[in-house]
Amino acid sequence: MVSLPAMNDLHSAFGQALGLVADGDATLGNIVLLSLRVSLTAVALAALVGLPLGALLAVARFPGRGGVVVALNALMGLPPVVAGLLIYLLLSRSGPLGPLGLLFTPTAMVIAQALLIAPILAALARQVLEAMWEEYAEQLRSFGAGPWRAVPTLLWDGRFALLTVLLAGFGRASAEVGAVMIVGGNIEGFTRVMTTAIALETSKGDLPLALALGMVLMAIVLTVNALAQGLRDIAARQAG
Amino acid sequence: MRAPEAILPLRAEGLGFSADGVAILKGIGLTIEAGRPTLVIGPNGAGKSVLLRLLHRLLPPTTGHVTWDGPAADPRRHQAMVFQRPVLLRRSVLANLRYPLALAGLDRAEQDRRAAEALALVGLAPLADRPARKLSGGEQQRLALARAAALRPEVLFLDEPCASLDPAATRAVEETLQALAARGTKLVMATHDLAQARRLAGDVAFLHRGRLLEHAPAARFFAAPATAEAAAFLRGELLW
Amino acid sequence: MFRRLILAAALALATPAFAQERSITVASTTSTEQSGLFGHILPIFTRETGIAVRVVALGTGQALDVGRRGDADVVFVHDRVAEQRFVREGHGLERQHVMFNDFVIVGPEADPAGIAGSRDTAAALKRIAESRAPFISRGDRSGTHAAELRLWQQAGVDPASGRGVWYREIGQGMGPTLNTAAAQGAYAMTDRGTWLSFRNRQGLRIVVEGDARLFNQYGVMLVNPARHAHVKREDGQRFIDWIVSPAGQAAIAGYKINGEQLFFPNAAQAEPGA
Ligand SMILES: Nc1ncnc2c1ncn2[C@@H]1O[C@H](COP(=O)(O)OP(=O)(O)OP(=O)(O)O)[C@@H](O)[C@H]1O
Ligand SMILES: [Mg+2]
């Protein structure tokens, strides 16, 4: 009684997912594009801050560093809803950044996702680069490069490992719904992305459609990962 | 050519180094003059690598100090070091050569000139665009040597630069070292290859269990070692 | 190679971000959005005026909060008491009637409280409480939640006494509430619009409808520009004027699911004094 409809739903979701893609549905296309744009921009923004921060933490030794590392690792678990609320209160017209008028816009979603994933990028980058720094430290000091100069060197030499870090950030960004729902408002045609569309269809009770959208999202994330991996392999073969 | 800003002689006085309360080097007094290579020999774990690091200022001494002659503000700019385990950047062979040259403030043309010269010096010219870390162990060691030599240091520290080279490469590297020495570069080199030490050394520093047991002109040292340990070591009978 | 890729990616992302257009933001309720009403009427308005309407769909309480913070230009909700307070406190300008729909009580096929077919909400709710049949409440300060609490009061039942046993508050929107009721074979109160477009009914069906107490009035108001200078007064007012105009009212009346009209325009009826 319970399992039969569920099987049917799964079946129909799969068919619907294929149908959505095959139709090249314009609304879906726009939602997909916005999702990609928001999450990729958020990753780029977070990388700009998070990767150098992670590299700096990998090379710098200062009192309280251990505390910073622990805090950063803990921030990886920042609930999206909390990140969303924080940005909501900042960007609300009644908040400190209200005059910018960014609430309920894609820009707000980018900021919230960037806040969410910057600690992830920083923490993972620190881990990856610290191992590399252990190997490089003496040689770079012999060349007269201090920790500051080591940061760009490590970022560049760690580029292939860092790509995986970026993909982890992208995965988290494109999968989260709490933050973009709150600061974007899930406005149709303007701030609706894959995850908020899935949440909407779920609450409308159209579970097969929600599941179908979920499958499309997974396919997109898979494609982005495959592309990145492919490029990485090509570049790695050239540069080592 | 580089005499006016010479940093030699180098003096170590009462030099000691402990790690975690364990004394690794004790009371080293040593003067290194310009001229033919100084060879540092001694059994495994005697402290050769640590001594080179102290002299190159990669490690802060626990006791005593290292002083350099001359007015040069930063004596490290006149030194380079080739490590026992070569540390190559995750870049092409050419980029590895350029990196320290760029750090030293040389312009691009000069970097290219010196890199090409250094590649020819160690016979790696055909591999210029290969990923450095995919080279064989011996090729990596030769690249590390070329990279240090390209800096044209006044003092070049070498920590067993021929450890994983085949006989032909060993001879080639030795010739390179002879050429560098002839050009006026002071070599300070740790090695386990006694035959090589005999061929290269101007003077010999013999370390045993963290103490400098002898520092003598090579001819005298090899002909008539002053300590029983050195004599045993030369006979191949001294264990750590 | 890698360097060029990074550069290309940076350029692609830096291109002029998200297109700007003439638009207003309307804080409204999940019921209006999810029933599909906005999807039907807003394109008509935009075609006539060139003003895009961005709807943020929340519970009525949250939607009023968004208005209070100045994060929307117009509030379009259904909780008359709360709306009147909103205006009285100076957060919004004049409130106007727009339309009404009605609530229904839905329940499982088995109907353990035996209320199917009833038109007396108070009696039906009393039966549910007496039989301790599970009831899913929004519990989210929404207009529907507020209406539900008023109905319990009229029935003389304090549902809090059954909290966690048969009275289950989930703190979510209408859709999740119906999903939960369907999964647990429970009763729930919903607006008819959401019910009609709700797909995951499983055994759920309407058990109580047609009681005058189930009518649900929607109101619209402009966020007070004196409080929030950035409020798009002109375009927001234009939307309000349109939705209470004959054209807007006709658009509302024209929205049907399976031939069934969901919302009944009644802007002509003056707002009764508070
Ligand atoms: N940072 C350190 N912390 C603790 N112990 C160290 C450290 N560096 C070196 N040692 C110890 O000091 C001793 C001397 O090490 P060193 O590397 O100088 O030996 P070596 O003479 O170069 O030997 P080999 O011929 O094997 O290269 C060894 O016992 C080593 O384990
Ligand atoms: Mg050693």
From TrEMBL, chain B:
Molecular function, one GO term: ATP binding
Sorted UniProt keywords: ATP-binding, Nucleotide-binding, Transport
Q: Where is the ABC transporter domain?
A: 10-234
Q: Which InterPro entries match?
A: AAA+_ATPase, ABC_transporter-like_ATP-bd, ABC_transporter-like_CS
Name one matching Pfam family.
ABC_tran
Q: Which PROSITE patterns match?
A: ABC_TRANSPORTER_1 (PS00211), ABC_TRANSPORTER_2 (PS50893)
- Which top-rank group of organisms is this from? Bacteria
Hydrolase as UniProt keyword: no
| Record-given protein name | ATP-binding cassette domain-containing protein
Automatic annotation (TrEMBL), chain C:
Check the record and name the Pfam families matching this protein.
Answer: PBP_like_2 (PF12849)
Q: Where is the signal peptide?
A: 1-19
Q: Which UniProt keywords apply?
A: Signal
Concerning InterPro entries, the annotation shows: ABC-Tungstate_binding, PBP_domain
**Domain PBP spans what residues?**
21-246
What name does this protein carry? Substrate-binding domain-containing protein
